[in-house]
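Per your request, structure below.
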């Protein structure tokens, strides 16, 4: 029998990926345009691949039913045993039920008019210059979507990024996390564990999440697999007798290229490498980037000028591009620190004036914004990198 040709589906916008970024772009554009949204899994939000710590600005009001807890402080544990405690007067972040959050965001996009395609993945994307052809596989069904624009929200493995030949991430973090029961932890504080033997290239965490505690870590350029470091972390007294409920793993691309636009293909979220270099968090930058992406696409539909899509690069760079760049420079300084220097840096941060500044004005989404002020309060930090003064003063 002759091979059947794939069904052709035409739409204004094809969004590849049904996470928070993709769902946000689809929701905003579906109000006035034909939008289809592909989600490779049968259920949005699964499998879980996120610690779920997000600032208020990253969680729309309609999705706050997914909040499990509120965090106002952090305890940073140095490799040599010193602990820096930062305690703000107000709530600094939400702890989310990420699976529920993702479902709420996805269904809100569908309610706005986006056509869902669950269990569907993009296999090949070709931008002809006048339209984009995307080969889509759903079970045993093949479809060809023809759209005026493709928005790639398909995570760290992004086929959209590969098809558009946009830059790969500068660093790819590899992470693993477990949900534990039976851990005693202050419900308003996250705990962070630093050190080359703890989580080389990044850090480990313990996050209160309702009746569970999420314990995990990310590594980069490490000698062993993340699971080896996690096994070691879980031997600490506070975790030793806990019961493991679930385990998840994933990767986080950090360090974006100069552009997230190639012709008619635009990238958002992890596909655009927009996760924050110092925390690995990507919900806020993903959601905000998707809003800006939708703005640029709407401008294109109104003006019919393909150059309008390029305005997305200007928008995300103005909004958080400078922060990502500065934070990545700070990350490179962090990577060069020995355990002894990490301990020494935390002790400097604990000095009253510096600690007070961090508690009152610290911002998880824009952590580098205080770098010059912190250096003026604690010039001894310059000893950790000769370039730090030139970069941030």
């Amino acid at each position: 029998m002759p091979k059947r040709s794939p069904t052709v589906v035409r739409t204004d916008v094809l969004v590849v990926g049904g996470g928070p970024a993709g769902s946000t772009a689809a929701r905003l554009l579906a109000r006035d345009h034909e939008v289809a949204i592909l989600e490779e899994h049968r259920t949005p939000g699964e499998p879980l691949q996120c610690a779920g710590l997000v600032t208020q600005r990253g969680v729309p009001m309609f999705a706050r039913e997914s909040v499990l807890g509120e965090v106002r402080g952090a305890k940073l544990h140095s490799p040599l045993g010193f602990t820096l405690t930062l305690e703000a007067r107000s709530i600094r972040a939400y702890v989310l039920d990420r699976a529920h959050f993702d479902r709420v965001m996805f269904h809100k996009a569908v309610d706005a008019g986006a056509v869902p395609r669950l269990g569907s993945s993009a296999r090949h994307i070709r931008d002809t210059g006048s339209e984009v052809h995307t080969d889509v596989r759903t079970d045993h069904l093949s479809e060809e979507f023809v759209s005026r624009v493709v928005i790639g929200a398909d995570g760290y493995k992004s086929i959209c990024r590969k098809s558009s030949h946009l830059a790969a991430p500068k660093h790819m973090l590899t992470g693993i996390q477990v949900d534990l029961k039976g851990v005693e932890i202050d419900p308003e504080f996250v705990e962070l564990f630093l050190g080359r033997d703890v989580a080389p290239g990044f850090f480990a965490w313990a996050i209160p999440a309702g009746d569970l505690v999420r314990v995990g870590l990310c590594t980069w350029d490490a000698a062993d697999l993340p699971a080896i470091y996690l096994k070691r972390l879980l031997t600490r007294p506070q975790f030793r007798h806990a019961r493991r409920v679930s385990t998840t793993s994933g990767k986080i691309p950090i360090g974006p290229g100069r552009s997230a636009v190639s012709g008619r293909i635009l990238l958002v979220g992890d596909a655009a490498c927009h996760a924050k270099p110092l925390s690995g968090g990507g919900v806020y930058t993903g959601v905000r980037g998707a809003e800006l992406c939708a703005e640029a696409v709407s401008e294109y539909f109104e003006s019919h000028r393909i150059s309008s899509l390029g305005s997305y690069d200007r928008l995300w760079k103005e909004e958080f591009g400078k922060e990502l760049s500065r934070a990545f420079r700070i990350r490179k300084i962090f990577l060069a620190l020995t355990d002894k220097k990490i301990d020494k840096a935390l002790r400097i941060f604990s000095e009253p004036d510096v600690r007070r500044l961090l508690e009152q004005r610290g911002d998880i989404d824009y952590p580098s914004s205080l770098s010059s002020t912190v250096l003026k309060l604690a010039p001894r930090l310059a000893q950790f990198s000769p370039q730090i003064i030139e970069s941030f003063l």
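The longest helix spans residues 311-335.

Regards,
D.
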